[in-house]
Every structure is written in C-alpha cells, then in structure tokens.
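Lecture notes, unit on binding sites. The following record was shown on slide 14. It pairs a sequence with adenosine-5'-diphosphate.
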Amino acid sequence: MIKMRNISKLLKELATDWKNNNFFRAKIKLTIYYSTIIFFVVLGYSILLHSLFTVHIRVRAENKNISFLTDVKNDFLEGTKNGLLDIIFLLDTISIFFSVVLGYYFAKKTINPLEESYLKQKRIISDMAHELKLPLSVVKTGIQSLSIKETVNIEDYEDLNEDIITEVDRLSNMINDILFLEKTENMLDISFRNINLSELLKKEIDFMKNYAKDFYIDIKTNIAEHIYISGDEQSIKKMIDNLIKNAVDYNKSGGSVFVDLDREGSYAKLCITDDGIGIPSSDIKKIFERFYKVDSSRSMYKGGSGLGLSIVKDIVEKHHGSISVNSIENEGSKFTVLIPIV
Ligand code: ADP
C-alpha cells in the first residue's frame, strides 16, 4: 500500500518535471537517443558476430567432418546456430538495460554542466536584482527629497548628496564587478602566459598607495624577486587590487597594510595583512559568497558590492591556486593566496 503510494508520488513528480523542467526533458530525450544508438551498435555487432560464426562453423564442419552423414551434419549445424542465437538474444536483452543506463549516464554528463551554469546565471540575476533595489530606492528617495527645496536645509542637502553619490558608486562598482565575473566565468579573453608576479605586484602596490594615502594608510612590502606564475595578467591585477583595496577600505584611519610575496614549495605565497576592523568569526565562512557583505555600519567604506572576494576566489581557482583568511575582529585580517610557480 505504502509502496503503491510512493510509486504514484514518484510518477506524479516525474510528470511535473517533464512538464516544467526543460533540462529534465532534455535528459530523457538524450537518454532515448543515446540508448537507441548504443543498442543499434550492439545489435549490429551481434548480427555480424552471428553471421561470421555461422559461416565459420559451416566451413569447419565441411572441412573436418567429411564423414558425417548429411542429416547429422545439418542437425549439428542448426543446433549450434540456434544455441548461438539464444546466447545473442540473451546478451542483447541485457544490453538493452545497459544501453538505457549508459544513455542516461551520458545524457546527464551532457546536460548537467549546462543546467548548473543556467542555475548559476539565474541565481546571479535574482541576487543582482535584489541588490540593485536598495541603491536605486535610496537614490530615488534622495532625489525626491532634494527636489522639495524648502524642506531641505544645507546639512540635509549635503548628507543626501553624499548618500546618492555612495549609492551611485555602489551601483557602478557592482556593474563593473558583474561584468568582470561574467568574463572570468566564461573564460572569455583569458589568456594564460608567464607573468613576473613580483614586478606586477610592485606596480599594483604603487598604484594602490595613492588610494591608501587618502585614508592615511601606509602600505609596507616584502616582495621576493623573480617569482613567475602562469596566468592572465588582467585577472591577477584585479585579484591584487581587490585584496589590497579591501585591506584599505576595511581599515582604520592611520592603519597599515602589509604585502608579502615569497615562495612556498612549488607555490607563490602572497599574504595581504591589515590591522583594520577584522571580520567577525560568524561571517568568515560567508565572505567569499556572492553579494555577501558584513554589517556595513562597522566600516568607513560603504560602496562595496559584496562581489570583490568572490571574484578573487574565482580568479585564484582559475589559476589552480587557493585562498584562505585569518581574521580577528577589531584586530585585523590576513588573506593568503597560493598559486603554482612556473
Ligand atoms: P565588498 O565589495 O563589499 O568589499 P567583498 O566581497 O570584497 O565585498 O568583501 C565581502 C565582505 O568581507 C565585505 O563586506 C567586508 O565586510 C569583509 N571584508 C573583506 N575584506 C576585509 C578585510 N580586509 N578586513 C575586514 N573585512 C573585510
């Protein structure tokens, strides 16, 4: 009774999937195509085997058993042929089952990556829509308030103006990050070549020093020379900039950032350490997720999109490396990246 109910529930679920889920339909259709192909290949092979065997046995019987009476010889040949036919029939029946299983396996192999990437894109679009709502509504409310001139005094005006600029910055950062993420995910424009990481890091630090100066933050370095990795220069630059920018943005005025590059076995080890606001232990696991932001009231910086670290993680993984973080709230954070040396 329970089993019947389970079976009818399963059939109902399959029918709903068939109706609503394009990927499920595609998997079933592909299973049918693949298993039909596999089955016909096996069947063709069986027919060929049967014909060759029959000819072979007849030739041998003709040559060797010349003294057989014709009837006995024909009985023997028929018996052998029928025995062979039975075996082939049994094997073909089993092969129908295996061709369906194999067909389903290949169909899953073909469709699953497409389904995963579709679900990923869907999730990004819904997260994005959700994240865009807040800045847009802040901008809209700000503009509406500014347009009622008599109710806005000069301090409110400045605050509103600042809020609007912050939210517009956040929107523009988010759009740039989404475009970059999309590019790295699809490996578009990614070309791997040997990069002098030591030199690239020095250049990026010079560039980021100007940014850090505005917050009275000092960037100290300890960079080993001639460390080469195989990678995409634009992506590596983005990874360095994001990590150093975070170390500055989530710091305190007058704080410091330390960038260290060295070899560790067959890896280049890049450590970016700051003595800033740190990350609460409950948030550490989530900071690499898309759009995840730790409570923004803790930091001076409010323009983050929550995409920076997920981009960094994507880049590191595309370069066959790994990233880890150690952080203590109110004391600072240390991000460690390992990428194979060439
Ligand atoms: P965002 O664009 O908001 O900076 P990220 O993905 O780069 O997004 O970072 C996610 C969250 O992790 C940030 O909101 C921030 O709270 C926290 N975070 C990242 N780096 C640091 C750091 N060096 N120190 C403290 N908090 C950090």
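Take-home: DSSP finds eight helices and seven strands in the chain.
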